[in-house]
Amino acid sequence: MLFNSIEFALFLPIVFALYWFVVNRNLKLQNLFMIGASYFFYGWWDWRFLSLIAFSSLVDYLVGLRLLKTVNPRKRKTLLLTSILVNLGFLGFFKYFNFFAESFADAFTLLGQPIAVDRLNIILPVGISFYTFQTLSYSIDVYKRKLEPTKDFVSFFAFVSFFPQLVAGPIERATNLLPQFYTKRTFNYTQAVDGMRQILWGLFKKIVIADNCATYANKIFDNYGDYSASTLLLGAFFFAFQIYGDFSGYSDIAIGTSRLFGFNLMRNFAFPYFSRDIAEFWRRWHISLSTWFRDYVYIPLGGSQGGKVQALRNTLIVFAISGFWHGANWTFIVWGLLNALYFIPLLLANKNRVHTNNAAEGKLFASIKEVAQIGITFFLTLIAWVFFRSENVASAFSYLKGMFSKSLFTLPQVYPVTTLLLILLFIVTEWLQRDKQHGLQLEKLKIPGVFRWGLYYSVIILIAVFGGKQQEFIYFQF
Amino acid sequence: MKSFLIKVFYFSTTLLAICSSVTIFLPKELYWGNKEYSQKLNLYRKGTYNSAFFGSSRILTGIDPYLFDSLMNQRYNNSIQSFNLATPGTWANETFYLYQHFLEDPTLSNNINIVFMEFQNIMAIRPDKLTTNKAIYYQSLLNTLFTYNYSLHEIGLSFKNLPSSLYIAGSYSLASIQKLLNFNRLNVNETQVDSLAYYGINSRGYLGLHERKVTRKEISTKELEVYKQSIQTHLTKSQKSYNEIFYKKYMETIRQSKNKGIRVIFVLPPVKLTAGMAAVYNALPQENKIDVCDPIKFPELYKEENWIDDTHLSVGGGVHLVKNIVTELSLTKEITNDY
């Protein structure tokens, strides 16, 4: 079920009403209902894959229980490996089987021994990368004794399948979300109102920004050979806003929806395009995934404890895996490695934590230096996005070659003024709200009610009038 | 919770009230239909016709008015001049809307004696189409209320209809809200379609499909069998209960047409017929309907070669459909007397 669909527009108020008026008597009922609603939400797309979620939940639940009773370190490790193998096994089969088979065949072809491999006709279960990582975090945290394993079967299943973030995150840690299923939720007016605002802002990002940008980004990327350099640059710019609007919009709707049900999810985006260097960008982009890799890959590998060389190796590994997590294509791996290349000089110079505050903090305008830093960082991400969006690595290089040709300083062939003005409005709003959790967080600003409502109405009308053609969320494919 | 719900209610009603009020003060839209259809009507206005076809792409791509006129004129020695006013991607609500305006505009309907309208179902608007001009231009409060009423009756007939009815009511509500939030204007962002190819390739509004439309899959023998089975099962059964709201809508259309001196005939083309649709169809007066999809009477319609995809007949299939209409008309005495 898509958040920007009629199904969800019907589903959400029905589930909301039942949750607060029918099953609010006790905790178990609330959690059982949440499992039912979440399985219905997911099953709407393809009910057959519900068994995968259920199986994954069951394995991790049982592993958790066994870990509670097991003291022997070897047995504990075996249990953890079981959880990792089951979860990554599913992920590997559904997402990466064909990629590995083809890469294997390509490698043999390069060695002069061409072999034929049959591709399997596999459907990628929506959100598998997200819920797999979420359940893995539970097993790892229990193994490391950071988290008490749960004996509450219902709470655990509700935690794994929680519908707002089931298919595209944020990838929640068991330490944050699971305990919220242990206590009965009570309705919180302020939280619900802000949740509604965040949903509205997420819809604006998705429907107005991402869907409109998608039209032009698709057109330009699909026919990049026909366009001038300046148009290709604009195409990359549109894709940068498409993916940001799409994914951060989804996260906003997910977080806002959770707040309506009395849950707090972690923040996933913190205005990343105002970052002053790549390290800051990665602290602000897809935060739940970046911190997951930091906590469960980078640090266990030794982090930066073993000196620069080890830090460099670990950074490369994390960025490469992060790219690979996005999809079974070399383009994602190159995208990850390119970001690592951007990041490593900062790491070596010990400058990867220079910008930990907001740009132009406490001021309305940024200094020239900050504007330049933001511009350069954005441009670097733009180049990386070309790899992310292209069909294959060769196309990405051709695209970039075209982008840096002589026609860079000519007028673009595609120039959608309305979409560009909407992006400008979006950037200005985000800039003004950069110290908040989302673009429409207003409770701390003393704005009279009538203006606040006027603002919400304007956003709704902008969505209705300027909404682009409905597109599926990009991150559903990951 | 109470104050939250009250605020949500006030917020929504105020928003809709503001949009409605603003809409009243804005200049009226120049045309009641959408842009592409207005072009089709301009083409229609250039000639003089006494017969018209309404419906979805099944009719648009299935009925060639030139062929129909020549067969009718051969058979009854009458001067039939017909035009195909069907539109693609249309369910009953849109067809009713277009026909209503057609009746109200004397420049369009004054010369018309007979109208053939596809007997269609009410279906939900596809989510990806919800924000398009095509989905919102015909929305109104009356249409939304009609859809709610229809959905309620469907649920009343069987609780099994609950999900589909909710879906239908929800999609039309959202399309209406979308229209209201647009101040009754159409979506400025939408790119216009190639209207000539979309709304009719020949000068009588017919769009013959010579090759498969890439957006749809080919029909299979199995699917044709499903079509046949659904028609045989449901049309022959006499159902006691049917959706009265849907039935009344058809009867109202018959009455309004009669007031204008027009006989409207509902044509049932080969479709996957539901029990509900069949029950309403069966309840309609005999003189206002013709069944051209009977698999026993018209077996040629169920040959794969007469289909271009899983929904539309090929040009050859269309020839059979037109012939069947002419044949069936001859059996309806009252109608042939009109000619």
In words, what does this structure look like?
The complex is a heterodimer of chains A (478) and B (339). Chain A has 478 residues and is an all-alpha fold. Chain A has 18 helices and no strands. Chain B is α/β, with parallel strands linked by helices. Chain B contains 15 helices and five strands. Chain B has helices spanning 2-25, 35-45, 57-60, 65-76, 92-104, 106-109, 133-136, 141-157, 162-181, 195-199, 221-236, 244-259, 275-283, 315-331, 333-338, and strands at residues 51-54, 82-84, 114-118, 263-268, 289-291. Chain B is globular. The mean pLDDT of chain B is 82. The interface between A and B is medium-sized, with 27 and 31 residues.
Secondary structure blueprint with pairings:
The complex is a heterodimer of chains A (478) and B (339).
Chain A: H1 6-21, H2 27-46, H3 50-69, H4 73-110, H5 128-143, H6 153-161, H7 163-166, H8 174-177, H9 189-222, H10 229-260, H11 278-284, H12 287-298, H13 308-326, H14 330-348, H15 368-389, H16 393-403, H17 417-432, H18 449-466
Helix pairs in contact in A: 1-2, 2-6, 3-4, 3-5, 3-6, 4-5, 9-10, 9-17, 9-18, 10-15, 10-16, 12-13, 13-14, 14-15, 15-16
Chain B: H1 2-25, H2 35-45, E1 51-54, H3 57-60, H4 65-76, E2 82-84, H5 92-104, H6 106-109, E3 114-118, H7 133-136, H8 141-157, H9 162-181, H10 195-199, H11 221-236, H12 244-259, E4 263-268, H13 275-283, E5 289-291, H14 315-331, H15 333-338
Helix pairs in contact in B: 4-14, 8-9, 11-13
